[in-house]
Amino acid sequence: MALDVETTGLDHLEHEVIELAMQRFRLDDLGRIVETGRPRSWLEQPSRPIPAEITRITGLADPDVAGRAISDGEATAMLMGADFVVAHNARFDRPFVEKRLPLAEGRPWACSLNDVDWKDLGFEGRTLSGLLSRMGWFFDAHRATTDVTALMHLLDHPLNEGGTVARRMIRRAKRPTWTVEAVDAPFSAREVLKERGYRWNAARKLWSASIADDAVSDEISWATLMLYGGKREPVSRHVTWERRYAASD
After folding, report:
1. Residue 5 to residue 88: CA distance in whole angstroms
2. How far is Cα 194 from Cα 167, in angstroms, rounded to an integer?
C-alpha cells in the first residue's frame, strides 16, 4: 500500500490531516509492480483554518475541504488489508495516520526515503521530486494523490544490480534494528550525537538513533563510556517494521 498525507503542519500532536491518499499494489519476486488497485483519496476539514503557508505549498484552502471527511471505515480496512504500508518519509506520515485512524495501528511500514541507501545507488538528494527527476520523471509535488502516483513510479524503478527500488527497500525494512536513546545526555554532547546520526526528539526531549542489529553492542558501549562516563547505559529497544517510524519510536 502506497500512502501520502497533507497536513496543517509538521507536529502530529498539534496539527491535522487535510488530505489522505492511498493505492494498493502487488509485487512480483523481483519487486516489480505487476498489479495496482484503484487510487483512493479523501479531503478533510480540520478543526482550525488551514495556515496560509500550507495553502501556498499544497494549494488546499479552507473552501476546498469544507464539510469533507475521511471515510474511516474504508481507509482503515485498506490499511489493515495491506501486507505493508510505504510512504516517502514514513517518520512523518505514520504518526499522522495512526493518530487519525487508530484502529490501523501496528501495520508493517517501510520508507522509501530512509529504507533505501540512495547514496550507495549514486543519488545525491533524497526528495521524491529530486529522485524522480534523476530517473526522468517530473511531477507537481505536495498533493497527496500526485505524490502517491510518483511514489509508485519510484518503487518500480529498476536497479542495475537487478530488482527494483521496492525490493531493496523491503529487504532493509524487514531487518530488525535497535533504537538507542541517550536519555539525559549532557548538552555538550549534542554536536557529537548529531555527527553520529542521533536525532533530537522534541516531544520526549532526548536524542535517539536507529542502530543495526550487529552494531548495537558497540553503540551501547560507546554511549555508556562517552555520554555517561561508565556510570549507566543508554536505553535500548528492539524495533521491527511493525513499530518502526511510529510516534513512540
Report:
1. 10
2. 30
- Bridge partner list, 238: 178
Q: How crowded is residue 123: how many other Cβ atoms within 10 Å of its Cβ?
A: 14
What phi, psi does 161 have (nearest 5°)? -75, -10
Residue with cell 510518483: 150
Helical ranges in 135-215 per DSSP H:
144-155, 165-174, 190-195
Q: Is the pTM of this model over 0.70?
A: yes
**CA distance linking residue 78 with residue 70, whole number of Å:** 13
> pLDDT per residue over 78-96, tens digit each?
999 999 999 999 999 999 9
* Residues 152 and 2 sit within 8 Å (Cβ to Cβ): yes
The burial of 244, by beta-carbon neighbours within 10 Å (0-12 exposed, 13-18 middle, 19 or more buried), is given as buried
CB 226 within 8 Å of CB 192:
yes
Integer CA distances (angstroms), 150 to 21, 46, 82, 112, in order: 12, 26, 19, 12
Distance between CA 223 and CA 245 in Å, rounded? 23
Residue listed under C-alpha cell 538513533: 209
